[in-house]
Design a protein that fits this description.
heterodimer; A: about 260 residues; alpha+beta; about 75% helix; B: mainly alpha; 2 strands; about 70% helix; about 5% strand
Chain lengths: ~260, ~230
Amino acid sequence: MFDWFTFAVEIINFLILLFLLKHFLFGRILGAMDERRKKIQTKWDDADRARSDAQEEKERLREQRELLEQKKSEIMRRAEEEAREKKERLVEESRAEVRRRQEGWERALAEGKRAFLDDLRRRLSEEVFAVCAKVLDDLGNERIETRIAEKFLVSLKEMNDDAREEFAEKVRNAGRVKIYSRFALPAEFKKKIGEEIASRGNKKDSEISFDVSAENAYGVVLTCEGYQLDWTLKGYLDSLEGELETQLARQAHSGPNGRGSEK
Amino acid sequence: MKVTPDNIIYWQKGFFVLNATIVFTWIVMGLLLLVSWLATRTLRTDPRISYWQNFLESIFQYIRNQIREVLRDEPSRYLPFLGTLFLFISLSNFLTFVPGYQPPTGSLSTTGALAVCVFFAVPLYGIMRKGVPGYLKHYFQPTWFMFPFHVISEISRTLALAIRLFGNIMSGTLIAAILISVVPLFLPVVMQAFGLLIGQIHAYIFAVLALVYIASGSRTEGKQERREGDEG
């Protein structure tokens, strides 16, 4: 019934089988299971880590995007501000340029006007003188120099009291009274003028000199001690010029092609 | 009629005997190793595995969970011993449908050898888990007076383990043989099929009882420790 040898062999057999199965079956399967579990766990951990990293990355990118949005808004706001400032500056510069050009244009216009008037005055005086001379010569057999001398004499005689007093005092204090004219005064008028001056300031004829100067305007000029009394065609024309300017200005402001509408 | 395969002797020289028990034990061992090799040669460790490996792992995981529930310990170091017991007994009993086969478990020498292995495994696992003093202490629980009873209990349960398996398998084989001689048709087939089921049940019973004995060798100490911990 019971064999001790078989019993011992069966114990050894069982131990050998235990060793072999532990090595070839259980060890392998349990090892594979454990290793696989570790691998899955590792992958799981990696996935968790990757998810966590992705979440962090997402957060970081979101913050970056918000920061960029803020910067963008700031840059846009600054750009708009700079653009507005630049626009205002350019508008101001344009206005200054327009003003500058307008002033230059007005200055050029004024210079043109003045040159035109000077030219006009010169031509007018020459024409007037020529016309007057011809008219006087043709109609009354009179010379314009005579008429100018007469006008000077009249202005000398018809001074008001204050001017007369001042003139008398100047003549008295002056050593010499000089009378310039563009043309040679008739002897008759020289005498009349000399008498008039002498009567005012006790001057002798030798103290009164008559000179002809081409630089003078048409007319007669008396100077002594800084005092000047004259009647010249220029003075006459100045008064005409004043009237002419007034007339031009009125036309420029009222006319459709006047200066006010020009650019 | 031979009651035990020990009596079927193929070769003998003095003390050394080569009987059917030993030969069929070797055959069962060889088959187990072959099946083990076939089962584990294509094991993979990456997450994508074959259906076969998945099936195998699910069985092993089930067994591990069973052991863990009983022992409250990591089952990996108990599994080879208990698994070898179960597989050896199971295959030994399963092959009884093969004509001429003599189950080694039908020999008291084999079942006794297995029971003795369990007998020594119980203190071995207990010492591995709790240390020598910790394990020996449970023989004197709840009082030193219980020491002889503990010893008797262990010896008797080892004997019971051996004789239970031997008796059932031997009787099954014997009944089948008797029935074949009395009623040669049909009934022996049914009895044989019934014997296959009985064989698997006893393989399971043997393995579970071994597990319970190992657990009792470890758990008593565990309960004691918990009690001391509560008092402390």
